[in-house]
Amino acid sequence: MTTRMIGSAVTLAACTAVGALMSVPVSGQTAQATQASVAPPALVVTAFGGAPITYKAPRTPWGDPDLQGVWASDDMAGIPMSRPAQYGDRLFLNEQELAARKKQIESG
Q1: Whole-angstrom Cα distance, residue 88 to residue 48?
Q2: What does the H/E/C string look like for the chain?
Q3: How far is residue 97's CA from residue 103's CA, in Å, rounded to a whole number?
């Protein structure tokens, strides 16, 4: 029991010492630099002159992100929604299946 109490006291002392050291500014830091500050806004810097460009995502009138546009989907790329049962657990197509798939893709 005495060993546990000594171990707990040493652990508490170590945590207290680390906490006290973390609040002391490192050499070269000013008090202002150690204060919590708000992160600057994200900027995109162009390769032409380095002028920052700020970007604001478009919003709907009620404030949600505006996601209008044309979005590609898997069916446009010829990717089926589920694996055909005829392929089972195989990882690869055989030569005949590959040729048939290429023909299917080319014909649209």
Answers
A1: 54
A2: CHHHHHHHHHHHHHHHHHHHHHCCCCCCCCHHHHCCCCCCCCCEECCCCCCEECCCCCECCCCCECCCCCCCCHHHHCCCCCCCHHHCCCCCCCHHHHHHHHHHHHHC
A3: 10
**43: which 2 tokens?**
């900027």
| Token code pair at residue 36 | 């919590």
- For the CA atoms of 90, 92, 95, 99, the dihedral, rounded to the nearest 10 degrees, stands at 110
- pLDDT tens-digit series, residues 18-69: 666 555 555 555 555 444 556 555 555 555 566 666 778 899 999 999 988 8
End-to-end CA distance of the chain: give it in Å, rounded: 78
**pTM of the full structure:** 0.28
Contact between 25 and 33 under an 8 Å Cβ cutoff? The reply is yes
pLDDT at 34: 47
